[in-house]
Amino acid sequence: MYKTPMHELRRVCVIGAGTAGLSALKNALEEGLEAVAYEQGTEIGGTWVFSEEMPKDEYDEVHSSMYEGLRTNLPKEVMGYPDYPYPTEIDESFITSQQVLEFLRSYADHFKLRPHIKLQHEVIRVRPRSNDWEVYVWDHINDTCDTVYFDFIYVCNGHYTEPDMPTIEGMDLFEGRQIHSHLYRKADNFKDEKVLIIGAGPSGMDITNHIRKEAKHVFLSHHLAQTPNTAFMGNVTQKPDVERFTKDGAIFKDGSRETFEHVVHCTGYQYSFPCLSTDVGVQVIDNFVQPLWKHCININNPTMSFIGLPFNVIPTHIFDMQVRFTLKFYRGKRELPTREQMIADLEKEQGERWEYGFVNRKKAHQMGERQFDYYNELANMTGIENIKPVILKLMKDCGKKYIFELDTYRNYRYKVIDDENFAKYPL
Length: 427
Prior knowledge:
alpha/beta, FAD/NAD(P)-binding domain, 5-stranded parallel sheet, 24 strands, 23% helix, 23% strand, globular, EC 1.-.-.-, NADP binding, flavin adenine dinucleotide binding
């Protein structure tokens, strides 16, 4: 591929019109490129769109994981785009999913993105040609499939669609109902029932707090080294990992036994890119998408970028930063390293991860404290504007509180004073 110099290429395909896709579309258009975003849903917003729709059969797919009553676990002050923050008129910092969706709509309107977004258009196949990309797009409105050609591909399809279900002995023997958190929608579906929730990450903790208000009793199974605070929940009992299921409950690794009617698996998601052909040059093994340079650029076909793979990060800001980083190369303002240099850089970075204990492939894109070095690296390499220090300070102030201070951390609101400082007030 790429017989034409990269900076002379113009046609951009953005897959998805959620938070990442909107950023890719906006920044590409501002660079004077011919960009279009394909969104298979009926509206923009990606995972922030709430729908009670359930799969029609085992082959059907529900895109959104949004559930009723969700409030953000990060303050809106860190969730805006670098050049388009949330309006200060919203008093609370931890806002509803509907408010996030309205913000994304306003972002699209402010930057006049809607004419460049095709709703109910699903990208079903992307494959490389000698000098561009062949994209098959299914128009759900007219039930037609068209072939379109592009110079650049931004993969922004999110990673909260394909549930990562665990394999636990006896799961098929359990006679109650089992779902993944992807299909959890309302707490009142568990009224006066006993429920087992597996996983105490952000979703597991938040869903536990929702369900316990309706359920008779909730068992929260996890293997966190630090025990989260559930004292305020009352009818929640923490348990270790499940050893095996029985027909009416489970036996846990401490030998205890409990009975319940429902299981909610809050066990995360798999990175999945079903529209990409095998010859795009990327494979996914246990959520390690490889080979990518700087967690976004496809080393084998560099005119394809993946936006939003890193986790334990400042989501909206990192999406925007990755897009601006890649565009520096796509517009010829910086020169990409050779394939050999990019591979060497990837191997060096992964080697450092293994040394720090990130030996699980599922953590290959996990950032945490490493995110701040990552932001600096992208900025220093291409000269793009870095994330403001106040955003980094805010993020550090919020870290892990959605697990360990769930009962109190949303009782505060933040105010950005300037690029360096913020204030924090009780509601």
